[in-house]
């Protein structure tokens, strides 16, 4: 016999409509979403660390104000995404516990250090650029709260990307030393940015099912290609060279050919062996533990409820 709940879910997906929190959904759909949205939220929060390191070291008041606002936006993105995840029936404290215990992932890219101020620009240009490529299609993801969170996040991410590009363009108009700093930074971040899109399609266990459910709207390799095609002309305009000897325009495909990222390095970073994995998690754990009194106080205040005005 047909299951009417499942049929109704499948019809909604087929019509390209949204699934909402109170709708029935298969357990596996819910689990996949919790996995992806939690990982996405954790990425925003862990992603505050490499750039946050530079807030007290910014070269001018203007750069400091820009960076401060940007890192604050990332905290906001994390909060929208944790809220979206909570609509799936998981508690935020539980997600935080799983992140700290290494049971949920966050993006590989944030395990690389920001070593110079040029990295602040490169993270905006390449890392936020890759995030936009990945996230614009997710505005049409099938789960309502996730898709709606993505709309606002994408607007802010495009602003972040321009911010990074503008920083690098300013440095490229500076001294030879500054230009060398930008190139060195791009050399370090190029390949890890391509890895943000995930493993090659043939080795991506989740893509087929996630696309069938309209959770993902494109494959990892498609988005990686789209990112390269979007970014190479920007690199030319900036005057930097991506560190890929195989990068060239393919007239026939109307796209750039490019080399293979080092997937052994990607796997090592996912295993916890990237340059900054241990430090990122230790920092998050410390912040969570040191913030316990704030959460306790907020809960006590909430329990006490509103009080009549005193004179
Ligand atoms: N970093 C860490 N883990 C990754 C990465 C990455 N760059 N890419 C893939 N993985 C993990 C997947 O989570 C999965 O592991 P899991 O099953 O334990 O969760 C495994 O590698 C296999 O990958 P896929 O089968 O391709 O996984 P999936 O279909 O979830 O695709 C992707 C991965 C593309 C990252 C997808 O989850 C996605 O689009 N997420 C939303 C975007 C996002 O999280 N962005 C965060 C970085 S951008 C930013 O915050 C600024």
TrEMBL record:
Domain of life: Bacteria
InterPro entries recorded: Aromatic_CoA_ox/epox, Ferritin-like, Ferritin-like_SF, PaaA, PaaA_PaaC
Identification of the protein by name: 1,2-phenylacetyl-CoA epoxidase subunit PaaA
């Amino acid at each position: 016999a047909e299951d009417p709940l499942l049929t109704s879910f499948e019809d909604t997906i087929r019509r390209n409509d949204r699934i909402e929190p109170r709708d029935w959904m298969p357990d596996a759909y819910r689990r996949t979403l919790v996995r992806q949205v939690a990982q996405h939220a954790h990425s925003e929060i862990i992603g505050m660390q490499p750039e946050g390191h530079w807030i007290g070291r910014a070269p001018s008041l203007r750069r400091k104000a820009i960076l401060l606002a940007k890192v604050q936006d990332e905290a906001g993105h994390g909060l929208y995404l944790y809220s979206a995840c909570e609509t799936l029936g998981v508690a935020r404290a539980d997600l935080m516990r799983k992140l700290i215990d290494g049971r949920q992932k966050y993006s590989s890219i944030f395990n690389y250090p920001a070593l110079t101020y040029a990295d602040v620009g490169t993270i905006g240009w390449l890392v936020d650029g890759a995030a936009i490529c990945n996230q614009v299609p997710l505005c049409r993801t099938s789960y309502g709260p996730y898709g709606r969170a993505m709309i606002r996040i994408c607007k802010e991410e495009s602003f972040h990307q321009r911010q990074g590009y503008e920083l690098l363009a300013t440095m490229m108009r500076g001294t030879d030393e500054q230009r060398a700093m930008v190139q060195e930074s791009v050399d370090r971040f190029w390949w890890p940015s391509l890895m943000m899109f995930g493993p090659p399609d043939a080795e991506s266990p989740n893509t087929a099912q996630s696309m069938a459910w309209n959770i993902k709207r494109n494959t990892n390799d498609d988005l990686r290609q789209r990112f390269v095609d979007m970014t190479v002309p920007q690199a030319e305009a900036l005057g930097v060279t991506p560190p890929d000897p195989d990068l060239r325009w393919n007239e026939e495909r109307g796209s750039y050919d490019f080399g293979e990222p080092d997937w052994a390095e990607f796997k090592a970073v996912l295993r916890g062996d990237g340059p900054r994995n241990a430090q990122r998690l230790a920092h998050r754990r410390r912040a969570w533990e040191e913030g316990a009194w704030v959460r306790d106080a907020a809960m006590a205040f909430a329990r006490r409820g509103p009080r009549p005005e005193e004179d």
